[in-house]
Amino acid sequence: MASRAVVSEPSERRRIAFLNRLGTIRNDKKATRAAADATRRADKAKKEAKIAEGFAVHVKAEKKRTHRAAGMETKAKKSKH
Q1: CB within 8 Å of 43: residues ≥ 6 apart
Q2: How many CB atoms lie within 10 A of CB 77?
Q3: DSSP string of 49-75, one letter each residue
Q4: Alpha-carbon distances of 48 from 3, 42, 59, rounded to whole Å
Q5: What is the pTM of this model?
Q6: Average pLDDT for residues 30-58, to the nearest whole number?
């Protein structure tokens, strides 16, 4: 049995076209929002990386100071014996 062609009424076609336009607008807004979010996330990541880099310098200096003190303690203990 061959399928029959469905002929829609003019009001139905207008309704379908309207819904298609609404979907297109929604998708466009969604894409715009996604692009803005991606930009915002990238900017935030850059700022956080810069802050972390600043802290890294201080952390490295503190570790160096701690290890140097521990090495001197070990050296002092060995020289006593």
Answers
A1: none
A2: 9
A3: HHHHHHHHHHHHHHHHHHHHHHHHHHH
A4: 61, 10, 16
A5: 0.55
A6: 96
